[in-house]
Amino acid sequence: MSAHRIMFWQIEYTWLFYLLSAIAVLLFLIGAGSHIWVWKKNSKSMSLKGVGHALNKMCIDIITGRRLIRGDMAAGLMHFLIFWGFFLLFIGTCVLVAHEHLFEFLEGARYLWFSVLMEIGGISLLVGIIWGLVRRYLQRVPRLERRAEDAILPLWFVLMVLSGFFLEGARLAANSPQWADWSFVGNWIAGLIPAAAAERLYPSFWWVHALLCLGFISVVCYSKMFHILSAPASIFFSSASPVLPPSIEDETGRLDVAEAVFYDGCMRCGRCVAACPSSGAGEAYAPRDFVQWARKQMWQTQFPLNDIRLWNRGDYEGTNESMWYCTTCRACLEVCPVYGAAFEAVAKERRQAVEKGTLVPTILNQTLEKLFRYDNPWESSKKQRGAWAEGLDIADLTKRGAVTDLCYFVGCTTSFDDRARSIAHSFTKILQLTGVNFGILGKKEPCCGDIARRVGEFGLFEEQKEKCKTLFDQYGITEIATSSPHCYHTLANDYPDSSFRARHYTMVLKELLKNKKLSFEKPLNVTVTYHDPCYLGRHNRIFNEPRDVIRAIPGLRLVEMEHSRENSLCCGGGGGRMWQDLKGERKMSEVRLEEAEATGAQILITACPMCLIMMEDARKAAGTREGFRVMDLNELLLEALENK
Amino acid sequence: MTELNIIICVKQIPDPEAPLSDVSIDAENLEVVVDAPQVISPFDENALEAAIQLKEELDGKVTVLSMGKKLSDSVLRKALAAGADELILLEDNGFEKLDSHSTATVLAAAIKKIGSFDLVLAGRQAGDWDSGQVGLILGEMLGLPCISLAREITVEDGSVIVKKTVPEGYERVKAKLPALITVSNEVGELRYISRTRMLKMMRGGDIPAWTAEEIGVSDDAIEKMNIASLTTPPDMTRDCQFLEGSPDQQAAALVDVFVSLR
Amino acid sequence: MKEVLILGEVKDASLDPRILELLGAGKKLTEASGDKLSVLLMGDRVEDVAEAAASYGPDSVYKIEHPLLERFNADLWLAALEQACAEIKPSILLMSHSFIGMELGPRLAYRLDSRLTTDCIDLTIDSEDGRLLGTKPVSGGNAICVFKCAGQTQMVTVRGNVFPPAESGNAGGAIASINVTIDKSMSRLESLEIVEEDTVALDKANVVISGGAGLGDEDGFEMLEELAEALGKSFGSVMVGCSRMAVDKGWMSSDHQIGLTGTIIAPDIYVAVGISGAIQHLVGMVHSKKIIAINTDPSCNIFKVADYGIVEDFEQVVPALIKRLEEVL
Description:
The complex is a heterotrimer. By secondary structure, chain B is of the alpha/beta class. In chain B, 28% of the residues lie in helices and 31% in strands. Chain B has a single domain, classed as Rossmann fold (3-Layer(aba) Sandwich), CATH 3.40.50. Chain B has a 9-stranded mixed beta sheet, with helices on both faces. In chain B, strand 3 and strand 4 form a beta hairpin. By secondary structure, chain C is an alpha/beta fold. Chain C is built from 8 helices and 18 strands. Chain C has a 7-stranded parallel beta sheet with strand order 7-11-6-1-4-5-12, sandwiched between helices. In chain C, strands 15-14-16-17-18 form a 5-stranded parallel beta sheet. In chain C, a hairpin with a 4-residue loop joins strand 9 and strand 10. Chains in contact: A-B, A-C, B-C. Chains B and C meet through helix 3, helix 4, strand 9, strand 11 and strand 14 of B and helix 4, strand 7, strand 9, strand 10 and strand 13 of C.
C-alpha cells in the first residue's frame, strides 16, 4: 500500500467543521473587505504605474525577506522562519483541501514529500515564534512593544503548531503506518502516546487544532496579523502608487492609498523607533506610535464601527501632539519593512494643525508669519538678504543685463545666519577661483518654501513656489545651485513641471572636480569625518559626490562615523525643528557630535547650513576636544585650495 | 443670556518687529516711517484670541472695529479668518494721527451705532505709540466698568470674571456686563492663520466702512496728536572695552571689573 | 500761582521711592517757573508718609485719608482723585508710569477733560506758550517724540529710573487734608481674590544678569542663577532677567522680561549674556550704570551699548567667572 492519509479519519460531525470553516472564511472576507473599503473611502483616486515592477519588488521582498534581514539579521531570520513555516503549512492545507475535493493525488512519494515539508514547516514556524517571544520578552529588544496581542498571537501560533503535531502523533501512534518515519516530529510524539489512548485522543486533538486554526483565520483581519495581507499591499502600493506631494487642493485628512495601506500594514516592529534620531535622543516622539495613532484616526473617522482591531483599542491617544518633534529626516522610511513614510503622516497631521491654527507652537507661529511677510524665517526685513555679497563682485541676476550660466540660490539660513554666511562666502570664492560664470538673486531671492512645506503650511508653500518660479522665469534662470540641501530638495522634488535644473553645491563641486578645475598645491594633513545631511543623502541619495570632493584633497584622510550614508543621524534642525523649542533627554546634535569625535577626526564636515549651525552649537555646548572643528565642505575646500 | 456679543478694537500698525535699519524719521512731517508691512498690533491680536475663545466657548458674536485714515483690508481680514464674525472699518480722511482721547471718541461713536454689546475688548497698548490709553478712555466714555491687563477672561451669569495682572501677582475681579477689558499678552498668542484660510477670507464679501459722518463724529470732536518734535533716539553707544584672552583670562579680567565696581 | 501736583504712591506704609524721582522731575519744572510743587497722598492713614514726603521739600503735601482707600481700587481712587483735583486745580499732574499710574492716568484725564502723555523720559516747559512738553520713546524705542500737553490739567506719567531722585531738602511744606466723598457703590469691580506670585522686582536690583536666545535652553539660566548667587555675596540684590526671546521660547516667565514691554531698569551693573540687543531690549536697560555683555557675535548690537565685552561662548566664560568670583570676592 502506498503512503497516504485518510481524510476525516475518526471524525464525526464533519458538517460542523464545514460550517465553522465557512464562518471563519466569512469573517476573514468581511475583515479584508472592510480594510479595502476604508482604504478606498479615505484615499484620493489612485493611479497605478509600473505595476509589473511593483509586483516583482513585492514578491522578492516577501520571498527573501531581504528588507527584514537588512539592518537586523536576527529579526530577519526569525521572520524568515515564521514566514516560510506558515507559508508551507498554509500551502499544505490548501493542497489537502484540493486533494480531498478536487482530485486525489497525495499518494506514494508525493505524499511522503508532502509529509516532510509539513514537518519542516511546523518546526520552522515553532522555532521562529519562540525566537520571537524570546526576543520580545526575555531579550527585551528595546524597539519591541509588549502589548496584549503581542503575547496572545504568538502563543496562539505555538498552540496551533503543537496541537498539529500532537494530532499527527496520535494518528501515527494509532495507525503505525510503515511510512511514519517520514513524519519525523509526529512520529517522535507518537512514541509518547500509548497506542490504546491514541485513537481515543485523536478526535479531541483534531478538533482543538481545527478550532485554533479556524479561530486564527477569523482574527487575522482584526489584529496585527493582518500584516500578512497589508504588508505586501503596502510594499506594492508604495511603488505602484507612491505618496504624491500634497497639493493645496487636497481635502485635509485625505490620504494617498499607499499611506492608508501603510497604516494598516504597520505591525509595530519599531525599526523606525530604533532609527529615529528624535526617539534616540529621548524625545517624546516615536514614528511607530504616530503611525498607529494615524491608523486609529483613519478607522475612527472612516469606519462606522470604529476601530476594527480587537486589541490595543485604547492606546496611542494623543500621540499626535508629538508631531512637532519629527525632523522629517526620512530615517523611518529607510528602515521600514513595508516602505512606510511616518514623516509624511506627520506632515499630514501638521497640515491639519496649521489649518486649525490653535495648536501651532508660538515660535513656529511667529516664524511662519515672518516667512510670509519677509520671505525668510530669520529676520523681519528683506533688505539684508544679499548683504553678505557686498563688495564681493558677484553679479546680481535681477539687475539689468546680468546673464550667467548658473544661479546661486543662497537660501534664507545662509543669507541671514552669521555662521552659515561663511558657506556663501567660501562657495562663491571657489566658483570665482574656478572661473564659473554665476550670479545671485540678491535681496529679491525668495524663500523656496521648504519650512512651510515641512511644517504643513501648504498654502504658504504654494505661494513661495509661485514666487520662485515667477522670478526664475522672469530672469531666464535654468541652472540653479543651492547652499542648502533643503532648498535643493524642495526645488528639485516639490516643484513639478519646473523649467530649471536645481542642484546642490556638492554636485557642482563634483562636476568641477571631474572637469579638473580644482587644483591643490599642498597637502592638507588632517583627518575629517563627513556628516550626511538628511535632505542630501537619504532624501536624494547624494552620498558619493561630497565624499569624492573631500577625498580629492591631497593629504586628507576621511573616516566614517558609526552612522553614515543612509543610516546617518539627523542634526535635529530639519522639518522646522530649527524654529521650535522642543526637548528630550539629549540633543540630537550632541549625539551626532559624539559620534564624530569618536572617529578621532579633527574636523566634522557638513554640507548644509542647518547642520552647520546645529553642530557648531553642539560643539560649543559640549566642549569638545581642543581644536576640534565643525566646517562646511566649502570652507574646507577653500582652505585646501588656498593652502599655498 | 443667550449669546455673548463682543466688540473688539484693533489697530493697524507697521510691523513693530521691523529692525532699526528699516525705521526712519520724517522730522518735518512728524512721522515715523517704517518700511515694513502693516499688521494688527500685537496686544490687539491677544485680545482677538481672547474674544474668539470666549465665542467658541459660549457662542456669540465677535465684531471687530478698526479706525484709520486708510486701512488695509488684507491686514484686517485676518481677524475674520481667525474667527471673528464681522469687521467694520472706521475710515475717514480725518482719522489720522488722532490723539488717544479722539480715537476713543470715534470708537465710542461706532460702538453706540452698533448698539448692543456685552464686552468691549482692546489690547493694553498699541505697538506703535505705546500710549496705553484708548481702551480705558473708551470705557469711561461708554460708562463701563474698566478692567485692565487681563490674563484670563471668563463669563458667567451676566458677569465677567477676569484674572488681571497686579504688582503682587494677579487679582481675580468680577464685574457686571457690559464691561470693558484691556488685554495683556498672557491670554495667549493669536492662533496661526493659514494662508489658505486667509485667501478664502480675502475672497469674501465687502467690508463695511463707516465715515466720521456716518457715526456722527464732527470735526471739532477730534484732535490730532500734538507733536512738538520727532527725532531719532539719542546715541546710546558706549565705548566697549573687549576683554581678550582665553575664557579663564576673560573671566579673570571681568572679575577685576567687578571688584573695581564694588 | 500755578501748581505742579505729584500723585504719590504708598508702598508698605512708606513712601514709594518713585515719588522721589517725581519730586526730582517736579523740582526741575518748578525751579524754572516758580510754580508751587505739591504732593498728594492717598490711603487709609498716610500721616507718617506725608511727613516723610514733606521732608523732601515740596511746598505742600495733601493727604486724603479714607478707610476705603486702604487698598488700591481704581474706581474709588479715581473718584477721590477727581474730587481732589477739582479742589487743587493743578496745572500739571505728575504720576509715575507704574501700575497705578497707567490705570488711573487715562481715566482721570477723561474725567478732567484733559490729555495725558504716558511714559515720559523727559519733561520741559515750552518757552513760548508755557505748556508742558513730555518726551516719550515711540515705535519700540526707534523714535523719540515730544508731545505738547493739552487741557486745563496737563497730565503725564513718568518712566522710572530716569529722573534723579530728589534729595531731602528744607522741610516745612505744610500738610493739608482734603476730604472726599466716596462710598463702596462707586466701585464697579468686586475683588474675588489676590494671588501673590513670586514677582520679580527687577527694577529694585543692584545687579541684573540677563539671558537671551543665545543661552540655547533653560539650563543656561541655571548657570546665570549660580552667577547671581556668586555676585550676591558682595553686591546685595542680584537678580536674573531675560530678553523677550527667552520668554517667547518659554524659558522664563514674562515678569523676568527686560525691555519696552517688560520691565525698564537701570541697575548699577547689567550683565547681558547671549543677548544680541534688539532695540526693544536696549531701551529697557541702556541707562544701567555699567553694562557688561557676553556674546559670541562681536558685531551684535549689545556690544555697542556695553562698557565691557567678552566675545566668547557663555558656557565657557560663565563657569570660569563663577569659580573666579568665589575665589576673589
